[in-house]
Amino acid sequence: MLDVVVAIGCVTFVMMFVLNLGGLLTWVERKQSAIMQDRIGANRASILGFRVMGLFHPLADAIKMLTKEDFRPARADRLLFGLAPFVSVFFALVAFASIPFGDTLRIGDREFPLQAVTLNVGVLYVFAMLSLGVYGVMMAGWSSANNYALLGAQRAAALMITAEIAIGASIVGVIMVHGSLNMQDIVRGQGRLLAGWLPAWGILTQPLGFILFLTAGIAATKRIPFDMPEGESEIIGYFVEYSGMKFGMFAMADFLETVVIAGMTTALFLGGWQVPWLLADGVHFPWGTTVALPHLVVVGLQVGAFAVKVCVMIFVMMLVRWTLPRFRYDQAMRLGWLGLFPLSILNIVLTGAVLLLIGGQAS
Amino acid sequence: MRFGQRFYLIEAVQGVLLTAGHFFRNMGAHVARALGSRTARGAVTVQYPEERRPYSPRLRSLHRLVRREDGSPRCVACMMCETVCPARCIYIVATEHPNPEIEKVPERFDIDLGKCVFCGYCVEACPEDAIRMDTGILEFSSYSRRGMIYTKEMLLSLEPVGPDGRPTSPVPIPASRTV
Question: How do the domains of chain A map onto residue ranges?
């Protein structure tokens, strides 16, 4: 009974976290870009005169999308055209499942890992779900019976292969350091201290891997600077024939993928739910002071730390999205195949060499 | 390209730092403003319907007909403005003025703002200084062409722009405007 309750609780938490964050990102995108560009940003949607910094705009967007005409081109493939946005959103949503958002929760004498699904191949699972997301894009592009949509889908597929290979190869370094594919183990491994005081987060043990993973991850979200599947100034892209909420779902899938990449970066490189020097029984400062904390406070701090780190990563990704111009198609391909991929191979070799020097697995 | 530029990463990080600098500077100003600071300004935005930039005194805005002290139009229906108008948007019908000292007075004075090009020639041509374009009103759009025709009474009721650059009279709405 308790198992079921905790499992439902974890799944609900992950779903609410990802969905709400994804919905909120439309607001974050508008406001953050506005503040970066010395503007104010969308602030006109109001309920009874209350504007609340434009927070009603996502709501207004949803109403607009839902009440718009749902157009389908005459020659479009009925089944695939309708299915494509759902496939996109589905895989973006389920990808977050194996990312741990906290350590174990102790109720009575039972322990539950704070994670929607406990998988010993968690990294590969997230990775696989992200790659499957491109099927929705390809289905959309092919079934629209539109050459521009097909071109966009083709670019999306090419970009996804490029990005996925770089992501996969840059993760290998992390897996080598921690000796596990289980996300929970990887996060636990990052709780160690380097030289007695520095938390061994992935960004310190794998700096090159972090940069490569972040770059490839941004490419996997299909957003600027890697938005040539969309390319709104030239081909409009794979969703050119979509309207109403189906179009909105593609936009939502992009935001959800941003959340997933941010979550994965947090889990693999920013120590996941780790708070520096916080252990299961309290804070152990490196100078010897110990502050004991009750179990629930520790769990709350860990979940909070995870959420904050994910938000910071999303902020960084938004910053990149609103700073850099779009890569040309061939430039993105060159960056992926001649830049990221060889560098991630180099990262694997370097990691292996260092691990050999300091004597086997670090954890 | 320089050697460092070829890596793109350094340039990208510099760009991100620049935009992040803007973000945090503006965010600080926004927070200071929310906490009560009057001088902090995080954005250059002018929130248009509520805030207005002062218009230049030379701005040519919606026309108005200048009134005499008794409220009748100063216009003597000499047809100069109608003649000079390059867009032919002015339509005048003249009639007798009750005062024998004044020759004529317009019975109708219609300006079709859908045709007007806001060149200001009518103001220049007027020998009586009876038409001016200083109301500061710029919002008079309409969904129909008929709704753009402004009559004598509407133009007579307008006042010049205030010293703060805000229009002092309400925007007149033609009776023929449907929406």
Answer: 2-357
